[in-house]
Amino acid sequence: MARLQIWLYTLWGWALFCSIALLASLAILVIPGEDRCRRCARTASRLIFRFGGAWPAVSGLERLPAEPCVVAANHASFADGVLLCAILPIRFRLVIKREMRRAPLAGRMLSRIGAVFVDREQGARQIAGIRALLKAARAGQSLAIFPEGTFRRQAGLLPFRSGAFAAAAAGELPVVPVAISGCRRLLPSGSWLFTPSRIRVRFLAPLRVAGNGRRSEQAEQLSEACREAMAAALQEG
Hints:
The chain has eight helices and seven strands, in the order H-H-E-E-H-E-H-E-H-E-H-E-H-E-H. By secondary structure, it is α/β, with parallel strands linked by helices. It has helices at residues 2-30, 34-51, 79-87, 106-112, 124-138, 163-171, 183-186, 215-234, and strands at 57-59, 70-73, 92-97, 116-118, 142-145, 175-181, 200-203. It has one domain (2-234): 3-Layer(aba) Sandwich (Glycerol-3-phosphate (1)-acyltransferase). Helices cover 47% and strands 13% of the residues. The model has no long low-confidence stretch (mean pLDDT 87). Strands 1-7-6-2-5-3-4 form a seven-stranded mixed sheet, with helices on both faces.
């Protein structure tokens, strides 16, 4: 019976996601203005989670500074990006892996909502991605990023990539760690089956650049402090 419930939930989940995502993507392609496009994406994301019966318990949202900042969340599932889009104010720009830019419809839609595309590999393209983050931070834009860069089925935090923290240090932006739990069960890595799950999103205390040291040192301090706060909230290593 449990297996049947998972299959029925999966069919409903994918039908819901595909229909709402397709309609929202087509609307975003013609709606003028980046803020309007982000508002449309946010509404669609909220509908997916609400009608999917997976609306999260959210705490600490009031900790988001009114000033520009960087939100750094743990990454456990493809559902994480849609979840952040549903919860965060529209002033936030999602940081997305560059491969998504080549996706026929999704890439165009993500560009329209102002996503920042970065390369996860080492070399010149990674440097270009960091520069894009620095440019956005120095322009006073708020960013939402998954510093692990990818995810896996097993619990536990992966090593953090430095780009977002370098941008935060250069732009003197506070970093808000976010602990997401439940999405790994909802849609595990390597699976297309949805499993009913209780999702929780916790916004933790903002972290700020300390002292007047080198930017690289400040970025490393921010990264370590963010990882420690996130791991403590998740109770993962």
